[in-house]
Amino acid sequence: MNFGGLDLAVLVLYMAGVTLWGAWLGRKNRGGTDYFLGSRNLPWWAVMLSVVATETSTLTFLSIPGVAYLGTLAFLQLALGYLVGRAVVGWILLPAYYRGELSTAYALLETRFGGAARRSASGVFMVTRLLADSVRLFATAIPLAIITGWSYPVSILVIGAATLVYTYFGGIKAVVWVDALQMTLYVAGGLIALLLLHGAVDGGWSAILASAGSAGKLQVLDFSTSPAVAYTFWAGLIGGGFLSMASHGTDQLIVQRLLTCRDVVQSRRALIGSGFAVIVQFALFLFVGLGLWVFFEGRDFASSDEIFSRFIIEEMPAGLRGLLIAGVFAAAMSSLSSSINSLASASAYDFWGPLWRRRRSGGEGAEVGGDPVAAIVAEADRDIMIAGKVFTLVWAGLLVLGAIVFIPLSEGTAAVEVALSAASMAYGGLLGAFALGVLTRRVSQTGAIVGMIVGVVTVVAIWATARSAVAWPWFVFIGLVVTVLVGLAFRTRR
């Protein structure tokens, strides 16, 4: 093992510094609005970086190079759809979120249908996010296990504990600002890898691109119409577009960040900007994968997620190796902290908050400045933060447990594809429910809930029985269509 004292010092100092800084950022949190929404006053560019860090993170840093190593640049087609999907969300859903100053993505469904629709959608989000981000956490444990010789469960626990500290104390402010820092670090790590690969391969990048071109690995566009092929132009544009609409328009993980901006214009700027940033980021790490393919001469690995980790540990110089591993953890911690905080906010606002209001409605609050209403509002906001911190602990534990459960299922599977598949199974149903709520006025709450359930179940059935015939980028589109069609059957008469 080449990971020495200097590397370990860099890694430990970085993780300790980030943890302490993140906890310090939350020192002024006084209530749920501060803890979960950053007082709705965070700058758009920081939110943009946080969105990108949250949706990509370790899966980009470790898995995307493996995708290019085993295949081509065709994965980049998804990013085109991602940009289109963001534009739709920015002009249709974001204004609806800001009109009511909503606290979670699913509060919008309550204003249209009722509390049951809100809780149903929030519950689907929780299950999906738990599955997808447990996989993300496992992927990050790979390099830590390689470095230290620890088992995967121990590695997962260490990462989870470090992330929990600043997420618990800092809230969304810590999550967003630490995300911005950590995205900068792991993108720098990708650029450093490109430079090192240039020097490690005879002929540099000219030779790498020539070898990759002769092997057909520079292909970006694939106009195949087969639904069984995951990375085609149509799957990217349509499937990726609907996936982005769902993830950035209905997933509390992303919507929560967008709601921290000052107004809808700032929020839209953060959202659209993140689409361009993701294209650049995907391209960066796909090219890292091409360089690794030439460097390792197509060598087989137990897991595609292990390829870049091995290069970092075995080939990089001391100090720089520690910085790159810190980049891996930066990517992981940004995604994990975002997931924990968004799950806690959905639990506090969508489930605990309504119960608190029903219990509190029969009592009287102490007056603040002679205003009992203000007293109740202040008390509710403070209690939401307290409940949110409890949920933060609960969800952190569940994510760690989920990552440990995934260990025996990981062999031969790219974590990025597993996580995206898991999320896509539910996204169609969620997006369909929002479409019914925003674009129709005659569908009942029962129709929205039944449609969403049928949409999710349909996609899960396809994944279980026919995933070799239908690739995961189509899951969101299929779930959306099923949800809308079922929901329209429950139209009410005027």
Structure, described:
- The protein is mainly α and 494 residues long.
- It has one domain (5-413): Sodium/glucose cotransporter.
- It contains 18 helices and no strands.
- It has helices spanning 5-25, 32-37, 44-55, 57-70, 77-99, 107-112, 115-148, 152-200, 204-214, 233-249, 252-258, 264-295, 307-315, 320-360, 372-406, 415-439, 445-466, 475-488.
- Helix 1 crosses helix 8 (152-200) and helix 4 (57-70) packs across helix 7.
Question: Could you outline the blueprint of secondary structure elements for this entry?
Answer:
Blueprint (H helix, E strand, L loop, with lengths): L4 H21 L6 H6 L6 H12 L1 H14 L6 H23 L7 H6 L2 H34 L3 H49 L3 H11 L18 H17 L2 H7 L5 H32 L11 H9 L4 H41 L11 H35 L8 H25 L5 H22 L8 H14 L6
Keywords:
Sodium/glucose cotransporter; mainly alpha; 494 residues; globular
Strand content: under 5%
- CATH homologous superfamily identity: Sodium/glucose cotransporter
Number of strands: 0
Remind me, CATH topology?
Answer: Sodium/glucose cotransporter
Provide the number of structural domains: 1
Gyration radius (Cα, Å) is: 22 Å
CATH architecture: Up-down Bundle
Poorly predicted runs of 5 or more residues = 363-370
Q: Total helix count?
A: 18
How would you characterize the largest beta sheet? Answer: none
Question: What is the first-to-last residue Cα distance?
Answer: 72 Å
Order of helices and strands: HHHHHHHHHHHHHHHHHH
Average pLDDT metric: 84
* Relative helix content: over 70%
